[in-house]
Amino acid sequence: MKTSTNDMIMEVKNLKMYFPITRGLLRRKIGDVRAVDDISFEIRKHETLGLVGESGCGKTTTGRCILRLYQPTDGSIIFTGVDISKVPERKIIEHRRDMGVIFQDPFGSLNPRQSAGSIVGDPLKVHRMATGKALKDRVTELFKIVGLDPSMMDRVPHEFSGGQRQRIGIARALACNPSLIVCDEPISALDVSIQAQIINLLEELQQKLGLTYLFIAHDLAVVQHISDRVAVMYLGRIMELTDSSELYENPLHPYTKALLSAIPIPDPVAERTRMRIVLKGEVPSPVNPPPGCHFHPRCSLAIAECSQMRPPLRDVGNGHYVACIRV
After folding, report:
1. CA–CA separation, 92 vs 84, rounded Å?
2. Are 18 and 61 in contact (CB under 8 A)?
3. C-alpha–C-alpha distance, residues 173 and 165, integer Å
4. Which of 15, 53, 148, 231 could form a disulfide bond with 57, CB atoms 3.0-4.6 angstroms apart?
């Protein structure tokens, strides 16, 4: 995946995140949960990269590795020219200042004992970027940016609706003027009517502030709307990566085709006549993933070679990457 260095904000190379499985009083290691299993991709400046897949495929773990909430097992995460996967824990705070995160649950991600203004101002205090009047002025500005009345700053989270809480979370993510924001399923816990408002807000903020998003979600319709490029994950690996329009108009990987066939169409006639792809079996365990291509036990196109070799993520033309030897 080649692009100019000046055009990239982050490059992830051969990222692995294995969680050890231990047993007994001595906590002897007996295996690993391969949550992220050797993936590579890049995020360009001012774009939205969508990361989609079924629950448990490793999307959120990837986001947390990028934020260095997890120390990766292997691989590199080059952010603004620095490999932050090798930065010691005591120094990582210097790089976190330029990254923000919007969590999935607007109810659980806010401290119920803090006021909304205090929550939004916390990153500024942690990074020592503002105090006193400057801190209050910045928090007031952030409330206005996300569409909240600054008079609400003294209220606690339970006094806000779900959509308002998520706006508080967005304001907190923006506090230190980050260049990259990891959006970890930021609308999945909200009502449908509120989801559109939050998506529109994120798009407006991106244009206004020049933000870059890693947008993690399982709602393919939302990802199509907001993303410039989309990466499809399955069992810890990236199966397909390309421009959003190209992925939805010309999916190449059998897993991507199955995912897209599950999106409801708001047309009863088209919904009845279209072909639905139903995958056989269940998603294998990341503790003992299948050899070769992880998807081959459920793939209708699988041949003997699929269980023997891991297909590389290769460019099949115009920046369309796919990990399948049958394509």
Report:
1. 7
2. no
3. 13
4. 53
Beta strand pairing call for 82-83 and 237-243: unpaired
Determine if the pTM surpasses 0.70: yes
CA distance 47 to 210: 9
Neighbours of 221 (CB within 10 A): 10
Q: What does the block give as tokens for 157?
A: 């989270």
- Span 282-309, pLDDT tens digits: 888 999 999 999 999 999 888 999 999 9
Q: How far is CA 197 from CA 92, 100, 162, in A?
A: 33, 20, 12
Structural domains of the chain sorted by starting position, each given as residue range(s) with its CATH number in brackets: 5-98+178-322 (3.40.50.300), 113-174 (no CATH)
CA separation for the pair 157, 142 (Å, rounded): 16
Cα torsion 165, 171, 174, 175: sign: negative
Give the contacts of 295 (CB within 8 A, at least 6 positions apart).
234, 235, 239, 253, 254, 255
